[in-house]
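User: Hi! Is it possible to get a structure for several chains at once, not just one? Here's what I have:
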Amino acid sequence: MNAGPEEKPVAPPVELEGIRLTEAQLRRRRARSIAIGLSLGALVILFWAVTIVRMGGNVLNRTL
Amino acid sequence: MSDVQIEGIETEAGQLAGPSDFIALLKPRVMSLVVFTALTGLVLAPGGIHPVIAFAAILSIAVGAGASGALNMWYDADIDRVMSRTRNRPIPAGRITRSEALAFGLTLAGLSVLVLTVLVNPVAGALLAFTIFFYVVIYSMWLKRWTPQNIVIGGAAGAFPPIIGWASVTGSVSLESIVLFLIIFMWTPPHFWALALFKSDDYARAGIPMLPVVSGVAETKRQILLYSLLLAPLGVLPAILGFATPAYGVLAGLLGVAFVVLAIRVFRMDAADTSMKAAKRLFAFSILYLFLLFAMLLAERVAQLAGLIA
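Assistant: Yes, the chains can be modeled jointly so their relative placement is included. Here is the combined structure:
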């Protein structure tokens, strides 16, 4: 039960099966990810800007 | 079965789309016209709107129009494949799958309506939702493949943007914005039928009941002339109703006359004329006509806001 640490057998590296993307495909996927990221960032900025506009001067009107 | 699936997956992965393919799904050229007409409605509307809110409104309307385009391409992929004009769109060309286009279109449609409703006002949001529904369900899914009057009724979808732009400022629909709607509504049939005249083979091959395919070239020419005669006075209406200057009225009248003259030339076009020069000329002029009308309205209002004219 309290035996010392056993040596784990080292598994031989396995070639994972599945789709391997080519360089061009990886590039396009990266471009898509960047485009989605930028769009979401722009949406965040838009909501922030409209919030500030809607609040107007009231943004400073708070108890300190 | 598994072979087919693996093949399918490989095909999809082999044609992974870039951002430009998704931008093509939004029909950028149609979108630019939507932005322009919506902006005109927004600027013409009485009362002010903060520039940031105005930007949010135009952006939402543009994205909503883009979403309609993507959903239209999702539904029409089968007929786009057989028409030379649309063969290179992302879905028939195999760069984007139908399900990707559907997901993309639905996401953008929902997002654009939500943003317009929350950031601008619920009336504008509801109008945008109705426009997307009208274009995708009423026009693309129902009318387009069923009746030669498809673009007459379907044209309403393209005519809504100035109403949405106007409602973004006022929160309501008014006579002025309805006039802008009517101008685009009456403009759509002669514009598209002029195109359909010289692309009728394409539509016939795709089995779309466009007027020249169903009722023949002669009837199409007659209808083009009829709608042009209705359109020309409508173009002048903003001046008569007093939300444009008499100078606009004169120019719009002259452009309307030119439109009718070109429509008469199409009407008189020889049946043996396969080059369809008159139809091509009317099609090109129709784009210029609508652009000039809205550009004049926009320029006048901007000049008025800047205090340059009364």
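The interface with chain B takes residues 19, 21, 25, 28-29, 31-32, 34-35, 43, 46-47, 49-50, 53 of chain A (CB under 8 Å). Residues 23-55 of chain A form one domain.

User: Great, thank you!
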